[in-house]
């Protein structure tokens, strides 16, 4: 009887222990499931929050772009208006200047017409201007004539220099010919071959020729 009770107690203990293990496993599974659900919920919340932040940033950027575009259009309109006002102001000022200039011109014209002194001065100035133009024309003609004379003188001087150079070459060649043939042909040269400027050369040739004649006579 005692042995059966002990086995019963042992089985009960084993069953209780099994139930406790199963209970612990169930609790562990629920805990894991709860943790996974919590983690998923956190991840989902984080993802939703990230998407919300991203969408918020995109909306902010879009709003900023629209605001910048609006500000640029406002600035462009302001600049165009300012430029238009400036152009209108300049045009008005120029028109006023033209009016003032025309008024001043008319006043001066009336003063000139009504003032004998100014009319006489204007006549004298016109006469002086005419005289100056006439003097300028005369000076221009004189300068042209002087230039022509200078050019002719330069051309004549060039011709004279060329003629002198040519005569110098002729004299040089003549002296060379006389030196080459004058000594041997001195006694046979016709009159007019030697000129007055060749007198010394002629005398030298005569002396040489006479020496040659004397030598030939002594040999015979």
Automatic annotation (TrEMBL):
InterPro entries: MNS1 (IPR026504)
Gene Ontology biological-process annotations: cilium organization
Keyword Cytoplasm: no
One Gene Ontology term, aspect cellular component: motile cilium
Chain segments annotated as coiled-coil in the UniProt record: 66-172
Domain of life: Eukaryota
Sorted UniProt keywords: Coiled coil
Protein name per UniProt: Meiosis-specific nuclear structural protein 1
Protein source organism: Eptatretus burgeri (Inshore hagfish)
């Amino acid at each position: 009887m005692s042995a059966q009770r002990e086995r019963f107690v042992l089985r009960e203990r084993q069953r209780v222990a099994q139930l406790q293990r199963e209970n612990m496993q169930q609790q562990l599974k629920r805990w894991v499931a709860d943790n996974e659900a919590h983690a998923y919920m956190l991840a989902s919340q984080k993802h939703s929050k990230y998407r919300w932040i991203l969408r918020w940033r995109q909306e902010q950027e879009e709003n900023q772009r629209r605001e910048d575009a609006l500000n640029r259009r406002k600035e462009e309109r302001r600049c165009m208006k300012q430029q238009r006002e400036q152009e209108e102001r300049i045009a008005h000022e120029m028109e006023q200047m033209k009016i003032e200039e025309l008024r001043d011109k008319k006043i001066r014209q009336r003063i000139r017409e009504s003032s004998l002194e100014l009319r006489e001065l204007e006549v004298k100035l016109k006469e002086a201007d005419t005289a100056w133009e006439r003097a300028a024309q005369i000076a221009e003609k004189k300068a042209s004539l002087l230039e022509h004379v200078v050019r002719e003188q330069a051309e004549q001087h060039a011709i004279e220099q060329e003629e002198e150079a040519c005569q110098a070459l002729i004299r040089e060649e003549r002296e060379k010919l006389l030196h080459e043939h004058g000594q041997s042909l001195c006694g046979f040269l016709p009159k007019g071959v030697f000129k007055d400027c060749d007198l010394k050369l002629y005398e030298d040739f005569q002396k040489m020729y006479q020496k040659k004649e004397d030598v030939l006579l002594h040999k015979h």
